[in-house]
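pasting for ref. prot 1 ->
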Amino acid sequence: MAKETSRLRITGTDGLVRVEFVDRDILDEANIRQIGAEILGRIEAETKPRVVISFHNVEHLSSAALGTLITVNSAVKKKAGELRLSDIRPSTLEVFKITKLDRIFHICDTAEAAMRSLA
């Protein structure tokens, strides 16, 4: 079985992990499962994960993707780490506000600001 192409760009330095989505639309269930597994694998590899997930490229996000983010947040907290979300478009940010997820996640305007908050 061939290895699936990553739906993410993951970089990291000094224990700080930055995740960016490749796709504009995070809607497909199979891709969301793959994304979740990839991020969770990276979190497990860190002692005390500090993670920034940038939504710079993302235009549309499904409710399943939001569920995956909640799972990722729980995994980070279990390891006494910190998670920041950044670069969320206004229309998507409205979904976070309606669902009250903006109270669960620490959301920054830019990935750079998110990374500074974790430094």
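and prot 2 ->
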Amino acid sequence: MTLAAVLTLAAALAPQESRAPQAGERGGPGLALFTAKALTAAWRGPQVIDNATLLVRDGRIEALGARDELAVPAGYVVRDLGQLWVMPGMIDLHSHAGGTLDINDLVYVTQPELSARTAVLPANPAFQRGLAAGVTAVLFIPGSGSNCGGTGVLLKTGPENYEDALLRDPGSLKVAQWGNPEDFAFGVGKSWENYHLRHMFREGRAYAAAWKAHESGSAPQPQRRLELDVFRDLFAKRTQVSTHTQVTQVVMMTLLMIRGEFGLDVYIDHGEFGGHRMAALAEQMGVPAILGPRNVETMNRGMINFTGEAPERFQGIAAGYQELGHSMIGFNTDSLPFPGFTPSLEDLPTQAALAVYYGFDDSEMSTVRGLTIVPAKTAGLDHRIGSLEPGKDADLVVLHGSPADPRCAVEAVYVEGRKLYDTSNDRRRW
């Protein structure tokens, strides 16, 4: 662990000074925000409310409506945001920026027992930069050097301690198919990768079934196997498989094997190099596509050699999925803890902007949805986050306009009603 990581951890573990709760957070007075435009991002129903009032109390959204229709209760703190907009906090479902990099996922071909939770540093510098860009929730996962790197953990980016930051553990089972695992040990091929993944899922299915039978009273208690415990959550639909998958043939196997053969909830991460050609099948099978950080496919010899196929044109990847009928398209950064090497957490809205630049149709607010409700629903967290609806966590982004417009700036960010970023006193630069 680096000195910087040690200092960050020490700061996170240090006793926090007591403070009076802010308006809107748990224990504080109610908060009323007046905004020129609220982007609700609801799964169904109106997507935009002009001249809106948003009521927040005890960390949750209490009500949202037009200003001339929704009264502010007595005792609420009122903040008039003028011409600024409000949208739900953004969600990144593929990030390695949750803490340290001292987790080794290159020991075995498949190691579902490895957990990223042991490396989490709440409110670490990467999270703080992401928060300033409006990213309020992250799936922190192991790497992709082996076919299964272990389990990730879903976290809020703002809270200072693990318990408050935790959304769900396990956040996903991280699987990788092609585009890294082929370099494992002596070098392997796609059939070899599929063999090992199928063997792992078969073992996991049998293990989950044995525990289910025991819990129903029809079988003795099985022997505990830590490396297979996650499959009890997977087959009970309490978590999902997040799959680093790319190339047409490989994305097809993600769909046919993990979703089709084993019936698990799974989603596509990356999904490039012709992966969009499987968009219609993915839509039919209910498999979301969380795309990025590569946004366009180009006609070059290196790509043709890697994929074994040639693109017909410069292809926007999100546009390709959309044009073939896929409706559950989100975005990710594949971020690392430090900026510059790959896109960082703060680049998540840029992924949506680049998708539009390369042909993605945003006329139905698809970028905002792809940054919010689509990943929330994909991760099974849409009951808590992803849209501005009563009862959900008050994770809010105050900004000048659409997050897919690179000219747009974030002015403030709330996590569960608590303002954790405000450019009036904390404009972050990186």
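The chain has twelve helices and 18 strands.
Residues 151 and 173 are 4 Å apart (CA to CA).
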